[in-house]
Amino acid sequence: MADTRAKKSGIGADIEKKLEYRYDQEEAAGTQNAIVVWVNAIVPQSEHEAIANHSHKELHRSLRDGVLLAKVINKLLASEGKGKVSFQKKVASPFVAMGNIESFNKGCLEYGLNKEFLFQSGDLWEGRKAQFLNVVNCIHSLGFFANSKGFQPTYTGQQTKYVDNE
Question: Which segments constitute the Calponin-homology (CH) domain (predicted)?
Answer without folding.
Answer: 29-146
